[in-house]
UniProtKB/TrEMBL annotation:
Coiled coil stretches, renumbered: none
Keywords attached to this entry: Oxidoreductase
Keyword Oxidoreductase assigned: yes
Spans traversing the lipid bilayer: none
A molecular-function term among this protein's GO annotations: oxidoreductase activity
Name of this chain's protein: 2-oxoglutarate ferredoxin oxidoreductase subunit alpha
CDD domains: TPP_PYR_PFOR_IOR-alpha_like
Pfam families per the UniProt record, alphabetical: PFOR_II (PF17147), POR_N (PF01855)
Domain Pyruvate flavodoxin/ferredoxin oxidoreductase pyrimidine binding, chain residue ranges per copy: 14-233
Domain Pyruvate:ferredoxin oxidoreductase core per the UniProt entry, residue ranges: 250-344
Keyword Transcription regulation: no
Length: 356
């Protein structure tokens, strides 16, 4: 298939449309504005619907309603906007409603800066909303990966009947790269997917046995415990995804995700040319986290693990520490607030480790 040059946000939206998304509700916020803008133009072309809500809170609940009727639905925002959507997302998880959403994250805390950052890691993986629910969270490092992950996210959401998050950032969202777009699902395929959702609120008699984990207003503690036990069984079934890049003989291993991992891989290439053995462990899913990737490391060779992320204080490093289990010292290379990680900063951090 021919490759086309697309901006990250627009590529995410097009991938969603091709996967059968026919409803989007959102609200403007930088740097994800091109996602709703693209949907507003594209969805009417395929018989879908776009709604700009009066707020982030309204938008996520509108998308919740559309998804409850069995339609493949999506919303998106950036950092503080995602925080406002968290209650609606937790409701989707509670009611077992499949919803895909994207966070094109920016600097914080609070409203923060409009430039890229990775300061929403805890929000995405540890506290996406009340009640301790979990989601599959994918972290693309290229626009092509953002396309592929978004396309598959709708299948995962339907399979699990659970929200799925694409955790990108302002770099991935606003950069332009050539991408190969997936095939457009046929209207027959989309109709079949919707028809198979016997739990959907579309006017027919509901299958209450399989309707969802909870019903609003259910205060039976035994039922609620069973709900959470069933949820845990779902979460345990997920398989983490990761990439180990030139780690076999590495003396320094960089641990990272998203755009920082992409930068880290280029650093590994540069330093290998200088004779410094550097490898990269990249988390492709940040939930479930690939703790097992750190069990594959040869700690007899490794001088240190270098956590590289665009967050101060560091967040990703907490999961890295849990994976390393004290088998090697861990250093950090950090930036935040809208500053983008540079290769020069990572190279300097690696060389300091080697000099020690």
């Amino acid at each position: 298939m021919a490759r086309v040059l697309m901006k990250g946000c627009e590529a995410i939206a097009e991938a969603a449309v091709r996967s059968g998304c026919r409803f989007f509700a959102g609200y403007p916020i930088t740097p994800q504005n091109e996602i709703p803008e693209y949907f507003a133009r594209r969805l009417p072309e395929v018989g879908g619907n776009f709604v700009q809500g009066e707020s982030e809170v309204a938008s996520v609940n509108i998308a919740y309603g559309a998804a409850s009727a069995g339609t493949r639905a999506m919303t998106s925002s950036s950092s503080p906007g995602i925080a406002l959507k968290s209650e609606g997302i937790s409701y989707c998880a509670a009611a077992r409603i499949p919803l895909v959403y994207a966070n094109i994250s920016r600097g914080g805390p609070g409203v923060g800066a409009i430039q890229p950052a990775q300061q929403d890691y805890f929000q995405a993986t540890k506290a996406s909303g009340n009640g301790g629910f979990q989601m599959r969270v994918f972290a693309p490092s290229t626009v092509q990966e953002a396309v592929d992950m978004t396309y598959k996210a709708f299948d995962y959401a339907d399979e699990d009947r659970n929200p799925v998050l694409i955790l990108a950032d302002g770099v991935i969202g606003t950069m332009m790269e050539p991408v190969e777009l997936p095939e457009m699902r046929s209207e027959e395929e989309i109709a079949k997917i919707k028809a198979e959702k016997k739990w959907a609120c579309v006017g027919h008699e509901l299958d209450y046995e399989n309707r969802g984990w909870i019903q609003p207003g259910n205060w039976d503690t035994n039922i609620m415990q069973q709900v959470n036990e069933d949820a845990q069984a779902l979460y345990d079934s997920w398989v983490p995804e990761y990439e180990s890049y030139m780690t076999e003989d590495a003396e320094v291993i960089i641990a990272s995700y998203g755009i920082s991992a992409r930068i880290s891989k280029s650093v590994a290439d540069i330093l290998r040319a200088e004779g410094i053995k550097v490898g990269v462990v990249r988390a492709i899913t940040v939930n479930p986290f690939p703790y097992n990737a750190f069990d594959e490391i040869n700690y007899d060779n490794v001088k240190a693990i270098l956590d590289v992320e665009m967050s101060i204080p560091a967040q990703f490093v907490k999961d890295v520490e849990a994976g390393v289990k004290g088998r090697a010292p861990i250093e950090t290379c950090l930036c935040s607030g809208g500053n983008i990680m540079s290769r020069e900063a990572v190279i300097e951090a690696v060389k300091k480790i080697v000099e020690k």
